[in-house]
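Hi R.,

As promised on Friday, here is the backbone we talked about, encoded as structure tokens. Could you run it through your design pipeline when you get a chance and send me back a sequence?
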């Protein structure tokens, strides 16, 4: 037994947040499609995540894939390919991740048919974003809430694994941007929306905020 302050200090140090294994696994599989298994291994080694090389998390919902691991992978992409190159790869990985997310999570949430429902586009977007946010809130320790302002719909990540314990002069949660782009593409049957991270915890902001244009660009 320690003093109350010691216990609080310890809790602060030890606090660890997780994605379910399934989410970690599909991010790595999506990355593999883009950079090949050797490319992913190189990133994992650079990130000092040797335990994941050739040993992806199992396909279950146990919360064992740490925010630290996801963030270290994002950081390694920037280190290996430069900020621009890393951003491009993370965006593509995010887009690729969607197809697995759709298969693995959407049936559970009961919106597999959302894209073909006869609803106005704005309504579909709102329903879609709400369910996507719930998916993270329910299955992982990532906290997402939705907002709206004159610029668009806001995807506000209050606890973010992409930039967990990182510092960056520019927003760096590109994986989330790519995933949202592809999710919106699906909901709207191929329309394109402007999706941009306007604030990032790694940059010193309170939240990682992604702004989605209300009207499609195409
Ligand atoms: Zn972030």
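Update: got your reply. Pasting your designed sequence below so it's all in one thread:
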């Amino acid at each position: 037994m320690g003093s109350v302050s010691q216990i609080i200090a310890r809790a602060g140090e030890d606090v660890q947040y997780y994605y379910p294994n399934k989410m970690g696994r599909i991010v790595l599989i999506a990355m593999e499609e883009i950079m090949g298994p050797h490319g992913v291994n190189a990133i994992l080694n650079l990130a000092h995540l040797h335990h994941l090389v050739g040993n992806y998390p199992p396909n279950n919902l146990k919360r064992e894939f740490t925010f630290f691991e996801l963030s270290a992978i994002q950081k390694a992409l920037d280190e290996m390919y430069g900020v621009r190159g890393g951003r491009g790869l993370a965006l593509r990985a995010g887009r690729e991740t969607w197809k697995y997310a759709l298969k693995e999570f959407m049936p559970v949430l009961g919106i597999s048919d959302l894209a073909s429902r006869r609803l106005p586009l704005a309504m579909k977007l709102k329903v879609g974003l709400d369910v996507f946010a719930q998916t993270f809130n329910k299955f992982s320790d990532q906290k997402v809430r939705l907002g709206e302002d004159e610029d668009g719909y806001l995807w506000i990540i209050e606890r973010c694994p992409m930039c967990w314990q990182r510092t960056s002069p520019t927003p760096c949660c590109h994986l989330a941007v790519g995933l949202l782009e592809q999710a919106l593409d699906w909901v709207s049957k191929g329309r394109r929306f402007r999706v941009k991270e306007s604030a990032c915890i790694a940059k010193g902001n309170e939240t990682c905020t992604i702004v989605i244009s209300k009207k499609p660009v195409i």
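One thing I noticed while checking it: Residues 5-11 have pLDDT under 50 and may be disordered.

Thanks again,
M.
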